[in-house]
Amino acid sequence: MTIEISAFAWVPPFAQGYVKDLRPRWALEEAGLDYKVRPLAGDDQNAAGYRAWQPFGQVPAYRDGEVELFESGAIVLRIAAQSKALSPRDPQDAAQTQAWVVAALNSIEPKVDNLVFPSIFHAGEPWVEGWRPHAEAVLETRLKSLSKWLEGRDWLTGRFSVADIVMATVLRSLEEEPIWARFPRLVAYLDRCLARPAFERALRAQLETFAENAPARS
User: Fold this and answer.
1) Distance CA 104, CA 190 (A)
2) What would be the CATH architecture of the domain defined by 4-86+198-210?
3) Domain coordinates in residue numbering, the chain
4) How many Å apart are CA 216 and CA 213, to the nearest integer?
5) Residue 218 has pLDDT above 60, yes or no
6) Does the domain formed by 91-196 have CATH 3.65.10.10?
7) Measured torsion, CA atoms of residues 159, 163, 169, 172, in degrees rounded to the nearest 10
C-alpha cells in the first residue's frame, strides 16, 4: 500500500510549520507508515485532476490505493484505523476519538481562528483591535471547558490518539497570544503533545518540503 498526501510546495514564512498537511504527516509518523508527498505549486490546486481529489483545492488530500479522501480530520481517522499504535482499543474509545477530532475542528478551531487570523490577514485595519475582546471572550469559554476536561488526564481519551494530534495543531496557534498563559493545564498538555518525536519528525518533513521549493532570490 502506497500512501500519498498532498501539500503545498511552498508557503510564506508565517505559515510554515502550520499548514494542515502537518496533521496526517504526524499521524503517519506515529503509525510508522511510509508515505510520499505530492507538492502543489503554481496553479496545481486548481487543476481538474486535483479538484476531483480535493474539491476545494486545499491541502491535505489523501490516497492509499484503496480510498481517496480529503479534510484533515477524516484523513487522520483513516490513518488511525490502519495503525496498531493509533487505533482505538474499544468502541467507546473509538467514539470518543471521533468526537474529539470533530470537537477540535468545530468547537475550538473556529474560535482560535477568529482571534488569530484578523491580526495576520487584516493587520493595521481599525476594526481588528475592537474585535479582539469579543473573540477572546468567546475563545476563553471554550478553553475553560477544554481545560476542565483535561483535569486529571494526560490525553483527550484513554491514550494518545489522533484527536490529540488535531487538538494540538489547533492550540499551537495560540502560543504567542496573551490568553494562552491563563491556561497552564492546556500549556502542559500541548507541551506533552509537541514533545513526541513523531511530531518533531513531521514538522521537520514539512519544513524540508518548503525549503526544497523556496522561490529563488533575485
Assistant:
1) 13
2) 3-Layer(aba) Sandwich (3.40)
3) 4-86+198-210, 91-196
4) 9
5) no
6) no
7) -60
* Residue-wise burial string across 165-187, b where 16 or more C-beta atoms lie within 10 A, e elsewhere: bbbbbbbbbbeebebbeebebbb
Q: Which amino acid is at 122?
A: H
CB 133 within 8 A of CB 195: no
Indicate if the pLDDT at residue 30 is higher than 90.
yes
| Residue 90 contacts residue 158 (beta carbons within 8 Å) | no
Bond prior to 60 in cis (omega within 30° of 0): yes
Residue with cell 499548514: 19
Rounded CA separation 164/197 (Å): 14
Instruction: Dig out the grid coordinates for 186 from the structure.
Output: 492546556
- State the average pLDDT over residues 5-29: 97
Distance between CA atoms of residues 6 and 128, nearest Å? 33
Query: What is the C-alpha separation between 191 and 202, in angstroms, rounded?
Result: 16
- Helix then strand count (H, E) for the chain reads 9, 4
| Rounded CA separation 2/114 (Å) | 37
Q: How far is CA 81 from CA 84, 100, 117, 162, in A?
A: 8, 16, 33, 10
Region of residue 124 (phi > 0: left; psi between -120 and 50: alpha; otherwise: beta): left
pLDDT number for residue 172: 98
Nearest residue to 193 (alpha-carbon basis) of 217, 87, 9, 185: 185
Strands (E) located in 16-112 = 36-40, 61-63, 68-70
